[in-house]
Amino acid sequence: MADQSIPEAPTPEAPPQDTASRNTPSGDGISRRKLLGTAGATGLVLGAAGGAVGYAAAPSEATPLSSLGADMAMFHGKHQPGITDGLQAKGHLVAFDLAAGAGRKEAAALLRRWSATAERLMTGEAATHDDTDVALDAGPSSLTLTFGFGHTFFARTGLEKQRPVSLDPLPDFSSDHLDKARCNGDLWVQIGANDALVAFHALRAIQKDAGSAARIRWQMNGFNRTPGATAHPMTARNLMGQLDGTRNPKPTDSDFDKRIFVPASGSSDPSWMANGSYAVVRRIRMLLDDWEKLSLQAQENVIGRRKSNGAPLSGGSETTAMDLDKADAKGEYVVPINAHARITRPDQNGGAAILRRPFSYHDGFDADGVPDAGLLFVCWQADPLRGFVPLQRKLDRGDALSKYIRHEASALFAVPGGAAKGEYVGQRLLEG
Q1: Which residues are catalytic?
Q2: Which of 58, 185, 276, 341 has its CA 20 to 30 A from that of 419?
Q3: Which of 222, 217, 223 is CA-nearest to residue 94?
Q4: Residue 91 · residue 407 · CB < 8 Å
Q5: Is the pLDDT of residue 382 over 90?
Q6: Do residues 189 and 94 make contact, with C-beta atoms less than 8 angstroms apart?
Q7: Which H or E run includes 200?
Q8: pTM of the prediction?
Q9: d(CA 277, CA 280)
Q10: pLDDT tier at 64 (50, 70, 90 boundaries)?
Q11: Within 13 A of 431's CA, how many CA atoms are on the CB side?
């Protein structure tokens, strides 16, 4: 930083099921979710005689779980999930503070619980204990859970010597109007999924796992367009209607890992951060009433790109390189000097680049009917002092977009590398 009722005929009470049977397909490959989905698809019909209510016959074969529900991310790996995965339709960001008296031992036990829960939920299984059944019969739905440590975590656990220099607090910016109650935190969890109930189920499980070891400091809810809602895959739009993330680094870029992940060797970061990344989290309120008063041309000049397809104002398609020197008949730059897209270009910032992976949010309206809406900005980089900080400083000095946004919350977290099979996230820090 761009959510008739028909009375149903009574049905026989189903026999009780244990946790495994209600979350695992039966031997013939038909899960309870599929059966329920079939019933919903066939629906109720009105009989020809006397308008009697009845059920349509079920098809001979159950409808398979859609690809949207069946898609599954991997918990174990070189990097944690939720960084390079595609944008998900629903997200929750939540920060925790360790409870008074909780230290390294309690933190290690908590991360062990969280990792075990994440591994199960990401495969579509229920939580091990006291599952809420919120996601009953749902598939994995691309669920990811990502865990990080805040600056204060290390003092609370006696691990100050293991705190990375890159985790030093972010500097103040002139665009900041921060609510301190919604900033920072000892621990951070990012949850994303392509189904709202699956995402909430994970949020509730993580909160319950925290038990007496940690309490929620703040929590934010976000969303993106549901995959498959457009005719073809495309860059996401934000609540301003702009394509958001056009110039994101791509895993296929030769320097992607260098920009986004801490290397396994040759880094000034402690060894436990190998293959990890740093997440900057900002709640950016969009002043939509002011923005929507602008003409289309004025909005495009603020951003520096066409609203329709994301193409630079200098011409071409969304992926065309921006011509910063192109001028119009009056000799003025076609891409205004203070356009957001011009200012954030890596070649205008010493190569600084970030991987944006945001969620939009809408938290209702104030007493005057002004929407509290905008972007839950999450960006990833190997070093925030070489990624987010120089970019934000540049934006602070003259971004045309700054008039229409307000940064209301901020946090920085060290996100360790992925857990190997049999490990939990952060084990190399907490047991090193």
Answers
A1: 244
A2: 185
A3: 217
A4: no
A5: yes
A6: yes
A7: helix 196-210
A8: 0.85
A9: 10
A10: low
A11: 10
